[in-house]
Automatic annotation (TrEMBL):
Pfam families: OGFOD2-like. Its cofactor is L-ascorbate. This is Fe2OG dioxygenase domain-containing protein. Residues 323-417 form the Fe2OG dioxygenase domain. It comes from Ditylum brightwellii.
Amino acid sequence: MRVRATVRPLLRDATDFKIPPIKVELDVNINSYPSETSLPRLWIRSSLSAIESTGGGIHPKFYDAIRNSSHKGNNPIETVLWHFVHRYLRRNADFEKVKRLRFQVGDEVLANVGNWEHGTVVAIWDEGFPYRIHLHDIGQDVHAPCDMDDVIKAPPKMPSNLNNSLDDDDDDSWPEEAKISQASWMEDMRNWKNAYEFSKNSPEKELFDKTFQSNKWINPKVNKWLCDGCCNTPDFVQEISPNIFSFQLFTTDFCNAIISEYERCETLASQTKQLRIVRPNSMNNYGAIMKNIGFQSLIDIMQDEILAPIAAALFPIVGAELTEQHCFLVRYAPGEDLGLDMHVDESDITFNVCLGKEFTGAGLQFCGMLGSPDHRHQSLRYKHSVGQCVVHLGAQRHGADDIVTGERINLISWNRNKVWRRSSGYMGPMYQLDYKREAGPPDLVCLSKTHDVDWETYCGPREGGRSFPWCPPDFARHVSDDMPTKEEI
């Protein structure tokens, strides 16, 4: 059984901005509940720096520490939630205290870049980081993510100006592994502060309410289906290729409001170094992560109330529940990002909605599923239109054609299902445990310069950009005496 809850951190010190609620989910073993020896496992659904590489999980010592704690709730669920709020999230939240840094511009320091390097502080609170340090021997500048001794410290015989008072905790016996790290907490504080500063004077006030204006913002057919309880097969959806669906999701008013707010944030970030736009991922150099510009509440409501029911209807197994998400904007324009190489998403189900503007080119090419015989065979070329959503499995290979004219901005939501990710259906192709041999030579449009080991066989030298060739694994690669040479292509 799974139980969902929303909590707020208990701040030791006042802040001038509001920390958003944190969504969690608890896995409860109903066969042993309410035994205190079998505690529910807590998963963090909201995006926190400390859990980005753990799929939302918490260190096992958290549960060991709970068993040794004197505090017990009315039941194991309350006990786990209390310790999550009062112990795991208990850090000094006074952002103003953090601003009183130990070092000033011109101070000599040691910076941890894998090993300790001598450097000089050349800027403080630069691009949201407490320090920018010039490394003497390397000759480069680096940022220190936080003001802590395991990241930046004084050289021998040089005392720090202030004691770092951020590591204190009311419960001295509570182990460090059982609470969020100070570095992660400060990164989240910077992100929350950043989001608050972006959104506090927005003219689009409705976007930051705690309700989603469904009557104004989404297709009436979608809204009616949701209001009717999502019981029937959604008749507003068209399956345009196997397991690829399309439908009108957002109204023009909503699309324009999101674009207007995003462009306002880009302008603010260009005017002050205290605010920074966090780009979507390693593939896109333009756009923004939605939560970092103030849209955490909006995307949480959108996932739970709109996307999750649609995902469950279209993909009953993979989309049975959505437990995490990464939601972001991408922007394509001549002179910026033009298109996107073939790839699969770090998601289980992807919703991709075109917000605007006017453009030519910039279609979306779809190929097969990861690990399937047709993985690199073309299945569909999709044409974007404003407000239209395309939904597909994250393991479906796809890429964006180059834009020719104009500007395209899309809202993309990567959704994950932690239960699906424990299954053989997910782990088989992802970890190459169940990976089928290709049925034939790949279609050229489906080749990835970044990921495919045989790119040079079909397309010639890799020129520019990063490459991490791994696909397909040797045992799954199509082999033929008739394989074309570069000259024949």
